[in-house]
Specification:
0% strand, 24 helices, 532 residues, globular
Length: 532
């Protein structure tokens, strides 16, 4: 047991950069880490506030129909879906594709202990998302229902067990995807297609359930039955927390713990065989000599960066999901009008709001697809190769920005055409619908590079750490969120002012910001890169 704890501790300290934070004596590094801690704290508070607001709005509906237990049922299901969604494409990376596999497996430690520590790492990461969803929901429920003291004990205890089943399901599916894709040529493409298909299916089901919350707001029994059928553990959870049934409480814990332990034991006994099966890839026996091609430094670096991007399914999934969702939304609006959508979600003026805020909505998806916030970190210990190469360092940075634009611009243009048709925008609105997301695409790509230069993580052992858990990714997401929230608020608050004028002003300001960032990268990029 002590080996499992030590391995888990080391992995968590390495993942979040806590080891360096605890032992560094560099004053500048301590200041940087203090700033990062403040940014992370702000991000957590903002997520908590949004989650509380979402739970409170749902509670108003459920309070009217006398089914407040549905709030905890739905939020428990949402937390499980989020855990499943965030685990399915990082499970293989955490469990199998870690760089120090040979080193760890050569230690005098049982393979089952290594597996247990890796699974516990997934558990800790998912527990954070569970708390972000369930704690605000629990507070709202307590405010509305004023339950007995026994509720708080049961509620806080069950929080620890909610992530267990989603982790098992996501790990099994993620591993199966990796194994199936490794049997074919182009395994990365097959893996991406299968993972995207499952993620979109889960999200589509979630949206259908969310829509049912509005449609069936006066049919509490039917809604409860639907949720309980989709995820039976929800029924046991609600009986335990809301009705104080000790039998359901113990059953929920026993099912979750036993399933988790059984999964860990089976995975531990078959770990090496599964690792061999997943990491074995198909190789072609045909090889043809081709003439050696020469290219400019920028083009060569761009091709190298693009190959690096495509070679990592985790990298592609984490940074392109926003653009995939944008494309899916654009296609769906061809078949359902914004007016009908407004009637469905009971927002009569949704069509007006969508017309005003369409450029900002599209920009939101663009900022979610920032590849540059982790592109430098992914160089890892090989960063010295780029640092010692006889190429201007700004060329290296610009090649990373170009890859980000390659991911966002083509899908952005296709989505623009579809949205222009479905929303029937005028020529001014059409111009803003294209220009502002384009500006945000450039802004997001350049800001990601700048943030990654300031907060690099070059000591990772698993890509998951650099792509999802690094400081630069969190900071870039927060900056992107703030850069969108302020324009959103301006458009909504200044409703008497022509929305096109406001959007035009926002576009001009963002162009100025992009110009400043670009100039800074060209002048200071060399120095910052050499300091890595």
């Amino acid at each position: 047991m002590i080996n499992i704890w030590r391995l888990t501790k080391i992995q968590l300290l390495s993942s979040f950069g806590l080891n360096k934070a605890l032992h560094t004596h560099d004053v500048k590094e301590r200041r940087r880490l203090l700033l990062l801690s403040i940014v992370i704290l702000i991000s957590v508070v903002m997520v908590g506030v949004v989650s509380f607001g979402y739970s409170f709005m749902m509670a108003l509906t459920f309070e009217q129909i006398g089914r407040m237990d549905l709030l905890l049922a739905i939020m428990m299901a949402v937390a499980s879906v989020i855990g499943f969604f965030t685990t399915i494409y990082k499970a293989s990376g955490v469990l199998f594709f870690f760089k120090d596999y040979d080193l760890v497996m050569s230690l005098p430690i049982k393979a089952s202990h290594v597996v247990a520590s890796r699974v516990l790492q997934l558990y800790v990461l998912n527990l954070f998302f569970t708390l972000m969803v369930m704690l605000p929901a629990g507070v709202v429920y307590a405010i509305k229902v004023n339950p007995e003291v026994f509720y708080y004990l049961l509620y806080l205890t069950t929080l620890l067990f909610i992530p267990l089943i989603p982790i098992i399901a996501a790990t099994i599916i993620g591993s199966l995807i990796s194994w199936i894709s490794s049997r074919f040529k182009g395994s990365q493409v097959i893996s991406l297609i299968l993972t995207f298909a499952i993620i979109l299916a889960v999200m589509f089901g979630s949206f259908r359930m969310n829509g049912s919350v509005q449609v069936l707001s006066d049919m509490g029994t039917q809604l409860a039955d639907m949720i309980f059928k989709l995820y039976p553990l929800t029924s046991i959870y609600v009986d335990a927390v809301c009705s104080y049934q000790m039998g359901s409480f113990l059953l929920f814990i026993v099912i979750s713990v036993l399933a988790f332990m059984l999964f860990t034991i089976v995975l531990g006994t078959r770990f090496k065989a599964i690792y061999t099966g997943i990491t074995t890839s198909h190789a072609s026996s045909k090889y043809q000599m081709k003439p050696l091609e020469a290219a400019s430094p920028f083009l060569a670096l761009y091709r190298k960066e693009l190959r690096r991007y495509i070679s990592s399914s985790l990298y592609v999934l984490n940074t392109s999901i926003g653009m995939i969702l944008l494309l899916a939304m654009s296609i769906s609006l061809l078949f359902i009008s914004s007016e009908k959508l407004g009637q469905l979600v009971e927002i009569p003026q949704l069509s007006t709001y969508l017309s005003k805020l369409a450029p900002m909505v599209v920009s939101m998806f663009v900022t979610l697809s920032c590849t540059t916030s982790s592109s430098i970190s992914l160089e890892g210990k090989n960063i010295w190769i780029l640092k010692s190469s006889p190429v201007p360092k700004q060329t290296i940075l610009l090649s990373k920005i170009a890859v980000n634009l390659t991911v966002t611009i083509p899908i952005l243009i296709v989505s623009y055409v579809l949205l222009m048709i479905s929303l029937r925008t005028g020529w001014i609105e059409s111009l803003l619908l294209l220009a502002i997301p384009m500006i945000y695409a450039c802004y997001s790509a350049m800001m990601g590079v700048l943030v990654n230069l300031k907060f690099p993580n070059l000591e990772w052992t698993s890509e998951v750490t650099a792509i999802k858990q690094s400081a630069s990714v969190i900071v870039a997401m927060l900056i992107g969120f703030i850069s969108l929230v302020i324009p959103f608020a301006l458009v909504l608050l200044l409703s008497n002012v022509n929305g096109n004028l406001i959007l035009l002003g926002i576009g001009l300001i963002m162009i100025a910001v992009c110009s400043v960032i670009f100039r800074y990268i060209r002048t200071k990029g060399e120095q910052l890169f050499q300091m890595l």
